[in-house]
Amino acid sequence: MSLKTLILGATAMAALALPAAADNGKSLVPGYPDVVGEYIQIPGYPAAGTPKALNTASFLRLRAAADGETPKPANAVIVGLPGFSSTPAHWLYLASQLVHKAQAQTCDGAPCRIEVWVLQRRGANLADTTGLTAARARKDPKLALDYYLGAAALQPSALPGAPLKVDVPPAGSPPPAWKPLSQTDVAFMADWDFQAYAGDVDAMIGLIKQKTGNRNVFLAGHSQGGGFVANYAARLQADGKRGVDKLSGLIFLDGGPSAGTEAAPTEAQLTAYFAKVAALRAGKDRVYTDASGMLGAIAGPEAAASQSVTGVYYAFVDPAQESIFPLRTAAMTANPGDAFLRAIRLTWLARAGASFDTDPVPGGGVQMPVLQFLGEGLGYLDFKPVPGTEDQCDKTPAAPMVGPPRPGMAAAKCVPAAAQIDPAKVYGWVEGGGNGQSPLDAGKARLWMDSQAYAPARSNIKPVAVTFAESGARTIDASDMIASNWYPSERWDFDAGFVGRYKTLKLDRDGVKLDIDKSAIAAIPVYVARQSPAPAANNPFPGVTDYTEVNKTGTYQTEAAKAVTPFDPAINAKLYFHTDFVSVDDSTPDKGRPGDPGNSAVANTLIDWVLKRSKGAAATPTPKALGVVARY
After folding, report:
1. Residue 310: CB partners within 8 Å, gap ≥ 6?
2. Which of these ranges, 137-141, 214-218, 457-461, 539-543, has the smallest mean pLDDT?
């Protein structure tokens, strides 16, 4: 797949006149000036074959800004695991809400402290973010566009709203400086397995100094990350203890909880597993996802670099101005409404909302099927067909729905077509959430836009020199936190499904050593928030008595859970889609009950749930001890 197919078309060159940029030289979270973020890297699990410089664990640390360079002892630390092909950026707002809300509560006569550490996927260690850092430092997003996509990407369109013509670059245009690493370069990713990620989490938790008897660390996972939580809790560690023995609680956000669906693997299943591992190691199967699989052409380093460039634009543009990037490119799998989404002129805010909302044209069915399920409820496009074109619909057959339909969403009767667009108009966005006008949405496009734009200026990550098998000597500067997954690990995704499938799993073969026993998950508090419409809690862990679940029907708790933090049974997640659980709006928590627009069902219940189940306070490392500096 060439860079040309991933370049997101543009309107006239006049659209590049950007307003004065906001000050992004700080690491404060947009909307939460009392929360500071730091992007941190530490030595991680020594995965076989991986260059030492790349065997690192990276995470976004969010903490109280008031503490400056000396974090106060944490009443609780939440270690978060993102979902399938997800990143810490998707957790930015839930994590910030928890850090913010803790400061308004009192613990031992002082404001409480919660820190949230969100694990980054290992593929981010391979991302060359040099161009992104330069663009942020100079507040010029075009630097990033030129570095990753090349100057040819900004040729003017023949007509307003038409895709760019990039087949013949202007004479003398320099090619992009960046080139993705090849499958051969990163063959070592074949051993970025469950054990590698578990070892990275071990390293993160090892930074927290707990006094004897204190229990302060909670493990949380969203989507695929929820499966990791159960697997990690059941895993036998080097000291002979299970993960569950070192944790204060398990948190599952629309992923799990699961105690496994099968007792143990059969010999045939083990043979198939190790055959796949062998194929990855031999280079017969690709080790990172690139324009294949469920995410199609929006996956892989070229697509992710393009998305990262968009994120830098989000950081500096006026959301009400016209976006230079449309929503569809020729490389994407055909879907209903593609011509409409390629042609429509949008504000930056509308582009952000329409890129990840489950149904940006209500009932129109224009979103890619995978994002109808994985996306958020952010609002809707301020669009009506030009009078007289109401029946000029896209005749592309409707794509299959991947997940549950949006509440109240009718089947598409007329998928919008390009002929229905006013070519002279720039269409905007009607926001959802607590301050918006859309009653069926829990999130807001502005939050999604800001989360894609955010990258902490504070980091300890330094450039590393690595010699790759095919690309040769390269310098990798991965210090800019990316909001997209550049090199999604096929081994990790494969292991996530395999390990989670079984109640017990004991392996010591071909370099894979695992001891998983999910019956060990007992006598620990469990919090679950999910889309399930189940009329009652579905606790898969017989030994867990302190169990809380928030779903679309209401909130259900065991008697042991009610005794610690009783919640209103009417609290529910009926408005929530998959990613809403970690990025939902919380701008009006004083209005209505948790789960209503602007009132996060997770943040406004999880804060008390965590603080009431944490004992003592833990010392967390200072920025100085970790080598954190302000990069720009």
Report:
1. 8, 325, 452
2. 214-218
Identify which of 424, 480, 450 has the alpha carbon closest to the alpha carbon of residue 31.
450
208: Cβ–Cβ under 8 A, 6 or more apart, which residues? 74, 77, 216, 217, 618, 619, 620
Indicate if the pLDDT at residue 203 is higher than 90. yes
Contact 257, 269 (CB under 8 A): no
351 CB-near residues (< 8 Å, 6+ apart)? 323, 325, 326, 327
**What letter represents residue 621's amino acid?**
P
CB 299 within 8 Å of CB 407: no
Lookup: tokens for 542:
């017989």
Mean pLDDT in the chain? 88
- Cis before residue 257, ω within 30 degrees of 0? yes
Asked if residues 436 and 374 have their Cβ atoms less than 8 Å apart, the reply is no
Distance CA 629, CA 612 (A): 34
Decide: 312 and 137 in contact? Cβ < 8 Å.
no
Pairwise CA distance, residues 353 & 346, whole Å: 10
Rounded distance between C-alpha atoms, residue 16 and residue 18, angstroms: 6
Q: Where are the alpha helices (DSSP H) in 435-565?
A: 445-453, 490-500, 559-564
Instruction: State how far the alpha carbon of 267 is from the alpha carbons of 231, 234, 264, 271, 425, in Å.
Output: 21, 22, 10, 6, 62
Asked whether the CA dihedral 142, 144, 145, 150 is positive or negative, the reply is positive
User: Which CA distances in Å does 552 have to 227, 484, 570, 581?
Assistant: 20, 29, 10, 12
Residues forming beta bridges with residue 57, ordered by sequence position: 42
Place of tokens 């939460």: 32
* Contact in structure between 136 and 455 (CB atoms under 8 Å): yes
**C-alpha dihedral (176, 457, 14, 152), degrees to nearest 10:** 0
* pLDDT one-digit tens code per residue, 577-614: 999 999 999 999 999 999 999 999 999 999 999 999 99
Q: What is the mean pLDDT of residues 52-77?
A: 96
Using the structure block, give the residue that is written with the tokens 């809300």. 101
Among residues 19, 28, 47, which one has the least CA distance to residue 492? 47
What is the residue type of 471?
S
Backbone angles phi, psi at 480, to 5 degrees: -90, 120
Helix axes 490-500, 224-234, angle to 10 degrees: 60
What share of the chain in percent tops pLDDT 90?
Answer: 74
Contacts of 481 (CB under 8 A, 6+ apart): 39, 60, 87, 88, 89, 120, 124, 454, 455, 456, 459
